[in-house]
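Margin note from the TA: students keep mixing up input and output lines. Inputs are the sequences; the output is the structure of the whole complex. Example:
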Amino acid sequence: MTETDASCDGCGSFEARCYAESWPLRTAFVISRGSRTEAQVVVVEVSAGGVTGVGECTPYPRYGESVESVLAEISSVLPSLRSGLTRAQLQQALPAGAARNAVDCALADWEQQRAGNVDSGHAWLPTVQTLVIAAPDAMAEAARVAAGRGVTVLKLKLDRHQVLERVAAVRSAAPECQLVIDANEAWGAEGLPDLCDALARQGVAMLEQPLPAGDDELLATFPHPLPICADESCHTRADLPRLVGRYDMLNIKLDKTGGLREALALAEEGKARGFELMLGCMLCTSRAIRAAWPLGPSARFVDLDGPTWLAKDVDPLRFEGGRVYWTDKRGGEGG
Ligand SMILES: [Mg+2]
């Protein structure tokens, strides 16, 4: 995919609308911050010249967002979209976050369709499969099932309890799988260097956001025996200077960067500063995964399994054997 500016020459303006959707999950999604049983997303549609582009975002309370606040933010730029707001102008019109993401992705989708470009560039991407917090034997069973389906990288959601027990249970249930951990800010600084050493000895390949974002400076005080990845601490390029020396990887999500445009810029500048990349997503439909697709090839870890948690998806991509396969919106496979 290529990225150009949606200046809409010859179209003049976009018809635009936004609305909320709720997608029930097939099973509860449990992380250190709490449990979810549905994915609440906000959708933006922009139409011009007989083409409709669609973008989706997931408002996230951790970042002060709700469905209502995101709908209000998007509504504030609908008049500008109707008078020809470009993607470049959008960067100034809204702050980085879910609302700008949905608008930017709708405009990007419109550009791609108008250019007749439905080719993803890559027929498939590898994706990790998330294991949510549960008793060690339940996480082990989930790992066994995933490994049996061909998944090769498992991401363990963990809180501060039974960390090594849960990792050991999953490790023994899926000895061939690569393991990464996401603590979602739940751990404390005390004992963290020793815990990192223990995780590295268990072969854990990466640790995501162990400490609250406000405690990042503590990560600079000990050598990292495994890469530590910034998620809640990394939203846009503006965060990069204070992440250097504290983190080794960046988890890039379009809902944090405020769309594909800033995500691509963050990936480029992050790599130039020596960070490895992870590509992540929120609980979302396949619409959001399609939008993030161009970032996949540059990421060491691709974590795009959000739609696999839904009871029902829209324009579904095919998830199979630790991979997500591109399909066009009529269901055909391509690349
Ligand atoms: Mg995370």
